[in-house]
């Protein structure tokens, strides 16, 4: 039957063990045979909700109904049994195996003959039938690792369908696709609907969503802020619900900024392709905010600026010196500092002590050269950071840094990077996941830093942070700057349209 409620969430709440409430009494009805898009900014709770439907995690409260009956899905095996399948944000294919092997992996039992041997002919035939039924450009014998991403994704979906899935969850499937692959993918999803499948489609890109969805639900900060039939809403309304309008202007950006370029990025493209012809200029004493929904090239921009061997085309000039080929130490000597939210991967070393982490990167600062000899200076520096940034729990500098809470780790990292007195600070989500007091302190610190002569490239998906700190805000979408706003003319609605791809004009950035 088409159109009846196949899966419903009733008051689903999820509180993670660390106390974070990712979902707050979410109600949602998914109708049979329909494409239901779920949209929302990064961190809105989309993946959490999908993981609950697929039995990967348990809700803290609330319940699920499947086909009208209350049901519990304690593990993915149960989800698969009732015909629910999920394609994750990261593929789970084996690159060295062929298309057919990947598709049947986990379902091989079906192909064992009475002697327990695999019947390869039957296996190939069944996969071929499935591919032909959906009219896909795939060869069952190709090795998956050699296929372009778009085709790998089809294999991933076929693998899920192969388990007799009628209800398919696609978690940001288009995020990994090149623009030319997206159209094919969307027709494929429509085709699946014609085959009678029910599909949950997660995406940030409203053009795509409006192209294929029947229903749209917007999640924001863990809440369902609206479910609509596509015909009864429009892109602008959905964008406003996604990004929100209630921005509180608590502070204003520092007034020191002059039109005098420190960092110039010209026609920057990366081989991996997340960045495409990106241009931007950061002036001296300026905080330049870069807004965008995660996955539009921000991570690669940070990598290009911070990593040693990141290949790119185009120019990155700091005071007219090209950054290409510079080692991390040379970048530090040029006066660049980095803050990242990815504390334990890039910023701090979990198993090193608070002391070691607090002085890392300062080694080359002549003052701290041979820091073993100048250990006292190192200790002084660290004590200064701890006091100035109000780091709690760091009395014993020989403790491992991981013993600190996330907010306190971030304060050490911020302190360490700022005490360099950098010319340029590249801050990537500097306050993600930390408490309000620590956030306020870090914001004040960034503010003071530009007044003392530095410039900051602030990459963030926290609109409040961007609006309160930035002299200008640029919007990145699909690897390019698509819009620019100058303080105080921040029109959050319009910024949201740029972020979700509803508006695009790449002039004056
Ligand atoms: N395992 C986890 N432990 C703690 N917090 C988590 C965990 N997984 C996700 N979160 C947090 O829950 C919130 C929602 O995350 P997620 O469901 O991944 O959002 P989305 O998919 O919409 O980007 C985020 O704040 C995220 O940091
Ligand atoms: Mg997600």
Structure overview:
With 509 residues, the chain is of the alpha/beta class. The chain folds into two domains: 239 residues, P-loop containing nucleotide triphosphate hydrolases (Rossmann fold, 3-Layer(aba) Sandwich); 239 residues, P-loop containing nucleotide triphosphate hydrolases (Rossmann fold), CATH 3.40.50.300. 32% of the residues lie in helices and 24% in strands. It is built from 17 helices and 20 strands. The strands form four sheets. The protein has a six-stranded mixed sheet with strand order 6-7-8-3-9-10, with helices on both faces. Helix 8 packs across helix 17, helix 13 crosses helix 14 and helix 14 runs parallel beside helix 15. About 1% of the residues have low confidence. The site of magnesium ion has 2 residues, from helix 1.
Summarize the structure in short.
The protein is of the alpha/beta class and 509 residues long. The chain is built from 17 helices and 20 strands. Helix 8 (235-243) crosses helix 17.
Attribute tags:
single chain, 509 residues, alpha/beta, Rossmann fold, six-stranded mixed beta sheet, 17 helices, 20 strands, globular, binds adenosine-5'-diphosphate, binds magnesium ion
Unreliable residue runs: 366-371
**What is the CATH class of the largest domain?**
Alpha Beta
Chemical compounds bound to the protein: adenosine-5'-diphosphate, magnesium ion
Radius of gyration: 25 Å
Biggest sheet details: 6 strands, mixed
Question: What integer is the average pLDDT?
Answer: 88
Helix and strand content put the structural class at alpha/beta
CATH superfamily (homologous) name of the largest domain: P-loop containing nucleotide triphosphate hydrolases
Regarding quaternary structure, what we see is single chain
Count of structural domains = 2
Task: Enter the CATH topology name of the largest domain.
Answer: Rossmann fold
Cα-to-Cα separation, first versus last residue: 52 Å
Instruction: Provide the helix percentage.
Output: 25-40%
Q: Strand fraction band? A: 15-25%
In the CATH hierarchy, what is the architecture of the largest domain at level 2? 3-Layer(aba) Sandwich
Strand line-up in the sheet with most strands? 6-7-8-3-9-10
DSSP strand tally: 20
Large-scale geometry: globular
Report the total helices.
17
């Amino acid at each position: 039957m088409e159109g009846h409620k196949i899966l419903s969430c009733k008051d689903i709440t999820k509180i993670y063990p660390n106390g974070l409430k990712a979902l707050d009494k979410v109600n949602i009805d998914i109708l049979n045979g329909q494409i239901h898009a779920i949209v929302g900014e990064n961190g809105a709770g989309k993946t959490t909700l999908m993981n609950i439907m697929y039995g990967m995690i348990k809700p803290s409260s609330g319940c699920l109904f499947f086909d009208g009956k209350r049901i519990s899905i304690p593990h993915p095996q149960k989800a698969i049994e009732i015909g629910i399948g999920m394609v994750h944000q990261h593929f789970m294919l084996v690159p060295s195996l062929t298309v057919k092997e990947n598709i049947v992996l986990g379902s091989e039992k079906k192909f064992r003959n009475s002697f327990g041997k695999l019947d390869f002919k039957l296996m190939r035939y069944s996969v071929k039938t499935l591919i032909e039924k959906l009219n896909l450009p795939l060869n069952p014998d190709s090795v998956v690792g050699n296929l372009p991403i778009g085709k790998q994704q089809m294999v991933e979906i076929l693998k899920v369908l192969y388990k007799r899935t009628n209800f398919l969850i696609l978690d940001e499937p288009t995020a990994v696709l090149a623009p030319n692959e997206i159209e094919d993918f969307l027709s494929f999803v429509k085709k699946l609907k014609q085959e009678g499948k029910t599909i949950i489609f997660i995406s940030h890109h409203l053009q795509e969503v409006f192209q294929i969805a029947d229903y749209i639900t917007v999640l924001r900060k863990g809440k369902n802020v609206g479910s609509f039939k596509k015909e009864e809403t429009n892109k602008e309304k959905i964008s406003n619900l996604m990004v929100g309008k209630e921005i509180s202007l608590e502070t204003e950006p520092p007034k020191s900024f002059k039109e005098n370029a420190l960092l110039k990025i010209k026609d920057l493209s990366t081989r991996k392709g997340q960045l495409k012809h990106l241009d931007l200029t950061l002036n001296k004493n300026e905080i330049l905010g870069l807004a965008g929904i995660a996955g539009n090239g921000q991570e690669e921009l940070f990598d290009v600026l911070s990593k040693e061997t990141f290949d790119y085309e185009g120019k990155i000039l700091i005071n007219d010196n090209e950054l290409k080929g510079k080692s991390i130490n040379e970048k530090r000597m040029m006066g660049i500092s980095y803050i990242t939210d990815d504390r334990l991967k890039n910023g701090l070393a979990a198993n090193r002590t608070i002391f070691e982490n607090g002085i890392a990167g300062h080694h080359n600062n002549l003052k701290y050269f041979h820091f073993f000899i100048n250990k006292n200076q190192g200790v002084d520096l660290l004590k200064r950071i701890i006091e100035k940034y109000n780091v709690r729990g760091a009395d014993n500098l020989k403790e491992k840094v991981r013993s600190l809470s996330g907010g306190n780790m971030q304060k050490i990292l911020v302190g360490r990077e700022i005490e360099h007195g950098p010319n340029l600070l590249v801050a990537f989500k500097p306050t993600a996941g930390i408490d309000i007091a620590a956030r306020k302190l870090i914001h004040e610190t960034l503010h003071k830093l530009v007044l003392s002569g530095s410039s900051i490239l602030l990459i963030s998906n926290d609109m409040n942070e961007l609006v309160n700190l930035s002299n200008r805000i640029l919007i990145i979408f699909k690897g390019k700057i698509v819009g620019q706003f100058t303080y105080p003319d921040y029109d959050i609605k319009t910024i949201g349209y740029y972020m979700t791809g509803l508006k695009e004009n790449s002039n004056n950035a």
